[in-house]
Amino acid sequence: MRTLVRLLLLSTATLSLSACFDDAPRIDQSGLCTYNTDPQAERCTAGQMAWFRPEQGQLISEQMALSVAAAYCDFNHQVMYNRAGVLCVFTDQRLQVAK
């Protein structure tokens, strides 16, 4: 019985410590690249928080939101969108798609 308790405690400690070694890259949240055209998006840096914000408070369609996300968002991170725009971690891996 003592062996089972020790094994359970060791397993719990190992699981708890594994969270300390998270190797996910940190996102710099001190800045925000805001764009509403493809040339403006090209000025954003990969790994930077980016916001597609349409001009003059216009609303975007769901199709446009998905098109923006498909071209500029890193899907290894959360993507948020609604009719007011798209907010995500920027990637430059698909810039050629936007052209």
If you had to describe this structure to a student in words, what would you say it looks like?
The longest helix has 17 residues, at 2-18. With 99 residues, the protein is an alpha+beta fold. Strands 1-2-4-3 form a 4-stranded mixed sheet. The protein is built from 4 helices and 4 strands.
The arrangement of helices and strands along the chain is HEHEHEEH
Shape: elongated
End-to-end separation in angstroms reads 66 Å
Strand content: 15-25%
- The secondary structure category is alpha+beta
Q: How many strands?
A: 4
**What's the story with the biggest beta sheet?**
4 strands, mixed
Strand order of the largest sheet: 1-2-4-3
Poorly predicted spans: none
Give the overall average pLDDT: 81
What share of residues is helical? 25-40%
Number of helices: 4
Radius of gyration: 20 Å
Can you lay out the helices and strands and say which pair or pack?
Blueprint: H1 2-18, E1 28-35, H2 38-41, E2 48-52, H3 62-72, E3 80-82, E4 85-89, H4 95-98
Parallel strand pairs: 1-2
Antiparallel strand pairs: 2-4, 3-4
Protein traits:
alpha+beta, 4-stranded mixed sheet, 4 helices, 4 strands, elongated
